[in-house]
Automatic annotation (TrEMBL):
Any Gene Ontology CC annotation: Gram-negative-bacterium-type cell wall
Transmembrane segments: 221-241
Name of the featured protein: Type II secretion system protein L
One Gene Ontology biological process: protein secretion by the type II secretion system
Native species: Sphingomicrobium lutaoense
Keyword Flavoprotein among UniProt keywords: no
Keywords assigned by UniProt, alphabetized: Membrane, Transmembrane, Transmembrane helix
NCBIfam families given in the database record: typeII_sec_gspL
């Protein structure tokens, strides 16, 4: 795995792209430097980790007994945040465990967290972790100093600051300070990159993996899109075939009734004229079916689950719709066209409206 560690700028709003950086390849420290040439490492799409500068985040160390359960860890983190200057309203906090079981609560100003993340976005960076520089130094009750990104850092038990004579005099005084060589700093960088002790990329600032289309699944998406398009074409085709089959059955029934009445075979197209010429009543079955199918097509939301012919000049159909108003609109349209329509509501177990309609001619 490739990783890129960046020492985030102290004041990101006033800072360009220059910062100290380290590249890690499969757990081995590689190139490093200071400036803007870290951008060349982005070609390999590494996991990017931000290091807060010394003094930008304070770390408080807690006894192991206070953080030995998740519930205690949450309570301890909130307690440390509440008693710190700024409190929960101004400070973002995160907690982790040291190798010896002690707890480490890191605190950083929320506004500065926004500034660092905003700087990263402006550089097209997606920070996977944010770790405090203070935890790169040993947490053993002693003062230590080491070079980080070309700057000397002093620290003891989570308190860290960049070398400054006044700060050294006030905080360190005459106490002994153990130097850390470059190898020790590199070891600490590798340790924190592999498994951060405390990750401030948590809570409201938690890392969220950006959505990316997996090229290997493009074929699956293409097949799925094709199937959806095919279904969109097949559904109206199936309905059309069903209506055509129903119309064919009606025509066959019309031919049978007309042929029986006239005593000779006739087709559905000539049945009405033949009966009228012979003094019989005109059969309006085809007209009624056409009117019903037209009304169904116009309404769209209503379907006919069954269509039948009673033989007394009336057509029956079972209509199913999403609600009663949809069916009522269809019935009203048939009545406006001059058809006599009656409806009988039927029980439904799927929440849709269901009625049996009887349709006859009034003209």
């Amino acid at each position: 795995m490739r990783q890129l560690l960046l020492l985030l700028p102290e004041r990101p709003d006033e800072h360009g792209m220059d910062c100290a950086w380290w590249c890690i390849e499969d757990g081995t420290l590689g190139q490093s430097g200071k400036g803007d040439d870290w951008r060349a490492a982005l070609i390999d799409d590494p996991q990017v980790i931000g290091i807060l500068p010394a003094g930008a985040a304070r770390v408080e160390i807690l006894p192991a007994g206070e953080v030995d359960t998740p519930q205690k860890q949450t309570a301890a983190r909130l307690a440390v945040t509440s008693r710190s200057i700024g409190g929960v309203e101004r400070l973002h906090s995160a907690i982790g465990l040291l190798p010896d079981g002690r707890g480490a609560v890191a605190l950083a100003d929320k506004d500065r967290m926004e500034d660092w993340l905003g700087w990263a976005r402006r550089q097209d960076l997606d920070l996977r972790h944010i770790i405090p520089a203070a935890l790169l130094l040993p947490v053993d009750g002693e003062w230590h100093r080491g070079g980080l990104g070309g700057e000397e850092v002093f620290g003891r038990d989570g308190l860290a600051f960049a070398a400054d004579p006044a700060m050294q005099a006030a905080l360190v005084g005459d106490q002994p300070v153990s130097p850390m060589d470059e190898a020790a700093i590199e070891h600490a960088l590798l340790r924190e990159a592999g498994a951060p002790t405390v990750d401030l990329r948590s809570g409201p600032y938690a890392y969220r993996r950006p959505w990316r289309l997996d090229p290997s699944r493009l074929r699956e998406f293409a097949v799925l899109a094709a199937l959806i398009a095919l279904l969109a074409l097949l559904i109206p085709l199936v309905h059309a075939l069903r209506w055509e089959a129903a119309a064919d059955r009606m025509d066959a029934r019309t031919e049978q009734l007309a042929s029986d009445a006239l005593g000779r075979p006739v087709t559905a197209d000539e049945a009405e004229h033949a009966l009228a010429a012979g003094g019989g009543s005109a059969i309006r079955e085809s007209d009624m079916l056409a009117a019903l199918l037209g009304a169904l097509e116009n309404e769209g939301l209503v379907r006919a689950s069954a269509i039948g012919w009673q033989g007394d000049g009336q057509l029956t159909a079972t209509l199913v719709g999403p609600d009663a108003p949809a069916i009522n609109r269809l019935l009203a349209a048939l009545q406006r066209d001059g058809w006599a329509v009656t409806a009988d509501g039927q029980p439904s177990n799927d929440g849709r409206a269901r009625v049996v309609v009887t349709m006859g001619a009034t003209r």
